[in-house]
Specification:
seven-stranded mixed beta sheet; alpha/beta; single chain; 7 strands
């Protein structure tokens, strides 16, 4: 079983991203479990969502505290939220960032990938200029780094479940899938993978 934690802000589609990815993994033949965690429910407030995937039935019913992987839909959260807390060494951290900023110290024990999901969302007119909807781009990028589920399954899930602009959302996922950037694997991760 693998556990994934999503970090975002209210209004970015963080919970929807976890649900869409759960449905895509289910279509790919996995058992899944997805659920949100809310603090103050307002636009811009930090939000977490969780996803478990496995090849066997999932019996756990607890919050995910030691995720294998994380998705950070707004890199500004890194300044105020401990996004790597409890994360298992060697897991993937996928960041929405326009630049290849130096996150090497914070993510020294993890594999790091980035995608400019904000730019992709804005170019596809998803959300507004001040609140772009980055969720579908993020799950497209995540499918690439994990190499599952296929981008076709991701796009079909989006088209089936998103009622507003399904084609544009699917296109955002595809573009993110194609443009995700992989950072160097830290030496500590290489040694553990051995």
């Amino acid at each position: 079983m693998q556990e994934i934690r999503f970090h975002g802000r209210g209004g970015q589609g963080t919970v929807v991203a976890a649900i869409l990815l759960a449905k895509a993994f289910f279509q790919a033949g996995f058992y899944v479990q997805s659920f949100p965690s809310f603090g103050v429910e307002r636009r811009g407030a930090p939000v977490e969502a969780y996803l478990r995937i496995g090849s066997e039935k999932i019996l756990a019913r607890t919050t995910i505290t030691t995720p294998h992987h994380i998705l950070v839909q707004d890199c500004r959260l890194i300044q105020s939220v401990a996004v790597t807390q409890g994360m298992q060494p060697g897991g993937w951290a996928l960041l929405n960032t326009p630049t290849e900023a130096d996150f090497s110290q914070l993510f020294s024990e993890f594999r790091l990938a980035s995608v400019d999901a904000t730019r992709i969302a804005m170019e596809n007119n998803l959300g507004t200029r001040t609140h772009p909807m980055v969720n579908t781009a993020m799950i497209g990028a995540f499918a690439r780094i994990m190499e599952i589920p296929s981008i076709d399954i991701i796009m079909n899930t989006i088209k089936a479940d998103i009622s507003l602009e399904p084609e544009k959302n699917a296109q955002a996922a595809l573009e993110a899938f194609k443009t995700v950037k992989f950072q160097d694997i830290p030496q500590a991760v290489k040694q553990k993978r051995g």
